[in-house]
Amino acid sequence: MIYKALTIAGSDSGGGAGIQADLKTFSAFNVHGMSAITSVTAQNTLDIRAIFYLPSPMVKKQIECIIEDIGVDSAKTGMLGNEKIIKAVASTISKAFKKKEFPVVVDPVMVAKSGVYLLQESAVDAFIKHIIPLAYIITPNKYEAEKLTGIKIKGKEDVKKCAKEIKKLGAHAVIIKGGHIGENATDILFHKGKFTEYEGRRLRGCTHGTGCSFSAAITANLAKGYNIEESIKIAKKFISTAIKYGVKIGHGHCPVNPISWIAIEAEKWKVYEELKMAVNKLLNDNIIDLIPEVGMNFAYALPYPYAKEMKDVASVEGRIVRAGEKARGGEIKFGSSRHLAKAILKAMEHNREMRAVMNIRYDKNILKKAKEIFSISFYNRQQEPAKIKKQEGATIPWGIEQAIKRVGKVPDIIYHEGDIGKEPMILILGKNPEDVLKKLTKLKI
Ligand code: PXL
Does ligand 1 have an atom closer than 6 angstroms to the CB of 78? Predict the structure, then answer.
């Protein structure tokens, strides 16, 4: 069974909010996304330059077509624009509403961050009269809740008062988002006479399209049959991820990244499989002479922008060690190598394509050969500033930075000659584990 969700909203040419955010969000939840476009905005991350409202019969036709043939498991409304469109949407979905065909999530979009009206002032009354009574759940932020009720929100009690008032306007459930209220950004749901609080943390960074993606996530989960409370819980987690991995584009408000929800999981699997295959090859090779005293490891990071911390880098748990005449390695696990994770994360700051690294025993002959065929650099641990030395875990990022600066790029090989109690080491860097293995093969003497 394929779940189908419909968004009735405006187009954001910058791809951050509106229809574009909704469709990405539906995809992230493996729900087939459909759209009835109400208006086209000409916008980028800085501002909205122009708005074209589609003729209301065209809006109506889009919805009718979809319902007639494909069917809808849940729908949401976003930017509706003007009174004519509001009336066309309401008359079309009220038939489905009466038959309880599908739930409708109403995101009462009114004003963009830049101050541009996305719902004409003159249409607010029509919105309250025609759209709110069709809402299974409505998702206002602070400003929208204030506008709909005339209540000024100063604290939690005002939020609850607002929610009760909006419920009286005909919505089945109300969630007032805390993104602009207080430091801890608690969302408050009013459903079946009961308040539920969803604690959150105020997240900074790329937030354009947050409201659209959040309501689309609720819509997608309702389509799958989750109830309101479950859908909100999932949508909250989803939106935190989408903000954390925001898309740093443009010169203004950058957008959230709805696809991160599924992309991280997909990339993890690819990283795991590629690294596992390469490690198996390596272990079947005659490599015991390449294993350093401290053991060998092989690490592979998630792609940009998902590689942020140690847990985003996979490696061999317990390292690759000598076991008699053979090499032996543990499971592939994310977050299992601190040293190599730190090294590759630093390298990726300079070249995001260099995602794999392996450490091998320091050997003058190997280095000699490397100098002939590869780009190579080093750092000197004896030159490490005392300040860095005192800082837990700062040595490797410092060293890698030194080595990269020395040659003006991320080289194939980085080595250091050790220090008191520190074994000298060679790192082989590459785009992926296969690339590193190829380089290793060329170095074997
Ligand atoms: O985030 C609200 C919103 C909804 N729909 C469209 C938008 C915006 C904000 O800019 O452009 C089309």
Answer: yes
Helix ranges (H only) for 169-257 are: 210-223, 228-244
Whole-model pTM? Answer: 0.93
How many angstroms does the Cα of residue 10 sit away from the middle of ligand 1?
Answer: 7
In angstroms, the CA 258 to CA 215 distance is 12
Distance 297 CA to ligand 1 centre (A): 47
The pair of three-digit structure tokens given for residue 53, joined into one six-digit string = 């409202």
Q: Would you state the pLDDT for residue 202?
A: 78
Looking at residue 114, its pLDDT comes to: 82
Instruction: Indicate whether residue 10 lines ligand 1 (CB < 6 A).
Output: yes
Going from the Cα of 12 to the center of ligand 1, the distance in angstroms, rounded, reads 6
For the chain, what is the largest distance between any 2 Cα atoms, rounded to a whole number of angstroms? Answer: 82
> Domains along the chain?
4-258 (3.40.1190.20), 263-443 (3.40.225.10)
Q: Is 12 in the pocket of ligand 1 (CB under 6 A)?
A: yes
Query: Which residues, other chains included, contact 155 with Cβ-Cβ below 8 Å and sequence gap of 6+?
Result: 182
186 lines ligand 1 (CB under 6 A): no
Tens digit of pLDDT for each residue in 275-304?
999 999 999 998 999 999 999 999 999 999
Nearest Cα neighbor of 433 from 320, 308, 326, 349 is 320
